[in-house]
Design a protein that fits this description.
This protein is an alpha/beta fold. The protein is about 40% helix and about 20% strand. The protein is built from 13 helices and 17 strands. The protein has a ten-stranded mixed sheet with strand order 3-2-1-4-5-6-10-15-14-16, sandwiched between helices. The protein has a three-stranded mixed sheet with strand order 7-9-11. The chain has a two-stranded parallel ribbon with strand order 8-12. Strand 14 and strand 15 form a beta hairpin. Helix 4 packs parallel to helix 6. The longest helix is centred in the first third of the chain and has 22 residues. The protein starts with a helix and ends in a 6-residue tail after the last helix.
């Protein structure tokens, strides 16, 4: 993080969804990097209140209650801002599957609102937080994230001569975040119930919130306009995760090792996730920590934008799926859970 401090030093930053599980970690890390102000924009009054208490004493923070579906409210929030981290979204697959109209309003129209006000205010950079569920989506949440990625790419063309840069990052399953399977398992362990998994062969890409935020800030500095930054993540079998968590945490709640129950896949749930498609990989670059998918729009590629990044090389032209990766061993999962565990959760 300290390597990147100069980039954000003195900047005015807005984080939409800034009181959420990823947004709040991002805000706390940003405050270490010397920004002039961090505006936390969120529609959840309770989460804003909790975060305000956690950040008591921080002078360069502003707490803004509002919804990204309200463009007028956003316009005031963005006034004078240099960088926007757009993390506000409906992220729960099952919730979006049963409430698709709301998912479109928040994720798609909300992102369009962010783009419009950012262009009008000539914000320096806008970074959209996407998901690996945007790759070959089979559910509403993934489909809205894919469309948002395309909107962000097109914004670089749509903006005309204005200076704003728009790019996206893709996360996998962020351990211990809201909606993560780790939180579901932990609640079941606390209640002494069986751990429910939908399919014993299910795999996922995973990372810690701190690692996600570190790479998010790194991608922000690297962004030239229209790229999708895809972080390299280890894959795990959900069954292995359940078994590790049962052995590791059940006794903390006064229970023996909890049973595991197979309940079948939920609506919109994939057996495996993908970091990028083979078509995307053909125009992607690769560094030690991430893939960088370059925009397909010729207008952007020929717009005198230099897509040059330190240590980057051509990526292998193949799809990157969690079912094809060697999954973490149980001992490795245990270490990852410990390193990702938020302070005070257990």
């Amino acid at each position: 993080m300290k390597e990147r401090s100069k980039f954000l030093e003195g900047k005015r930053v807005l984080v939409t969804g800034g009181a959420g599980s990823i947004g709040s970690v991002l805000v706390k890390e940003l405050l270490k990097l010397g920004p002039k102000v961090v505006r936390i924009f969120d529609s959840d009054e309770t989460r804003l209140f909790v975060l305000r208490q956690q950040l008591d004493g921080e002078e360069n923070v502003r707490f803004l209650l509002g919804d990204i579906k309200d463009k007028d409210r956003l316009r005031y929030a963005v006034d004078g801002i240099d960088i926007i981290f757009h993390a506000a979204a409906l992220k729960h697959v099952e919730s979006c599957e049963y409430n698709p109209f709301e998912a479109v309003k928040t994720n798609v129209i909300g992102t369009e609102n962010v783009i419009d006000v950012a262009i009008q205010a000539e914000v320096e950079k806008v970074i959209f937080t996407s998901s690996d569920k945007a790759v070959n989506p089979v559910n509403v949440m993934g489909a809205t994230k894919l469309l948002c990625e395309r909107l962000i790419i097109a914004a670089n063309y749509y903006k005309g001569p204005r200076k704003s840069v728009f790019s996206s990052v893709r996360f996998g399953n962020v351990l211990w975040s809201s909606g993560s399977v780790t939180n579901t398992f932990l609640k079941q362990l606390e209640q002494g119930k069986p751990l429910t998994i939908t399919d014993p062969n299910m795999t996922r890409f995973v990372m810690s919130s701190r690692e996600a935020v570190r790479l998010l800030i790194k991608a922000t500095e690297m962004a030239r306009g229209g790229e999708i930054f895809v972080f390299k993540m280890p894959a795990i079998r959900i069954l292995d995760l359940a078994e590790v968590m049962s052995r590791k945490y059940a006794t903390k709640f006064g229970h023996r090792v909890n049973k595991i129950k197979i309940i079948g896949r939920k609506a919109g749930e994939k057996l495996y996730e993908e970091l990028m498609t083979e078509d995307e990989a053909r125009r992607a670059l690769e560094t030690k920590e991430m893939f960088i998918i370059l925009p397909e729009m010729r207008e952007l590629v020929s717009k005198n934008i230099k897509f040059i990044y330190p240590g980057a090389k051509k990526a292998k032209p193949k799809s990157y799926r969690s079912c094809d990766e060697a999954p973490l061993k149980k001992e490795e999962i245990k270490k990852l859970l410990d390193s990702a565990l938020p302070e005070g959760l257990l």
